[in-house]
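Here is an idea for our session: we take a single protein and study its fold together. Once you have written the record down, we can walk along the chain together.
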Amino acid sequence: MGNIVIFCILAVVIIGSALLCVTTTRIMRAATFMLFVLFGVAGIYFLLDYTFLGAAQISVYAGGVTMIYVFAIQLVSKRTLQGMVEHIKTSRMLGNALVVIAGLLVVSLILLKTGFFTLDMTATDVEVPMKSIGTALVGSEKYQYVLPFEFISLFLLACIIGGLVVARKEEKDV
């Protein structure tokens, strides 16, 4: 019973923080709300006794959000950080709501078509050995993850270089 209560609290924190993250117009608040979402997901990992994933979630993503703070401070002007507020247009909000509803319908139809809700999850009580997980993470065969990790690392490196290029201040000749 206690796990259900904790899960419900974490779910409310995650959903509320995610909604606030995407609806706020201030970049520092959005990054802070995203940090709350990531801590909530780490809490769910800890609730499921996945302590390694919870610790990795906190260490990796807390560092990532710290980098977002640094880039936000460097890239955005002081006046914007102090809170210029953008007015919300009703037509834009209605269009966004329609896109969200369409996406929800597509995901629901896919889940219904694949039979996701009718799968018996309790019958698969097989523990995967750590050696096979490690092999999958560092292998380059089919259904192994070294190449996706390398592509992600190159993409993140390109993003960092792009951020530095944008943040660089050009000297004006006088």
Summary: The radius of gyration is 21 Å.
